[in-house]
Amino acid sequence: MAVLTIVVVTTFVKGRFPSWTVGDCSGLLVVVGTIILVRTSYRVATTGEGVPSRIRSPVSQTSRFEADATPERELYLLIRHIGGMLIKELAAGLEPLGITPEQYHILRILRDAGPDGLPCSTVAERAVSGDPDVTRLLDRLERQQWAIRTRDTADRRVVTARITTEGKRLLARLENAIAELHAHQFNDLGARELSTLRGLLERVAPRRSDQASRK
After folding, report:
1. Which of 35, 62, 113, 157 is the most exposed place for a label (fewest CB within 10 A)?
2. Is the domain 69-199 a CATH 3.30.9.10 member?
């Protein structure tokens, strides 16, 4: 069935757009297929469609697209819903080691910064959620001896955060488990679909960041 669909769509597109190559047609199919897959997954997760009633979760019975939602509103709700589920799964994987997803991400930022570390203001800018309360997160990391903060000798207003040896060891312990978790979270998408989905989201992300920075 999939092969027949590809042949039909490719023939149709080539007929309407003779200059398009087979690669162009395939790329279009990937984009369309990714959108259908994501929306179908959301519909199953939020409405329980196709899932026996005896195993539907409370969320499946109550969460759904709004009746009068625009396509943009539907996409917003979809991203919020999926993001919440992904964060919950990550939090569950990190909980046994006493670290939250926000703290984990800060540690990864500090590890990437190397021995020079980063000013706390820069750490806040690079945080996934843009969390302005990075001081609270660093307080917790410092109490656990996973990070350390020092004041700049030339400018006492600047506080630099660095990851410690213990922090690096913690990340090393988590590396494989978290990589496996993320692979499982997106195992329904192939490499090309992941690349396409990422590209689409990255087209939206810079505009959102620019608008937020102007407020």
Report:
1. 157
2. no
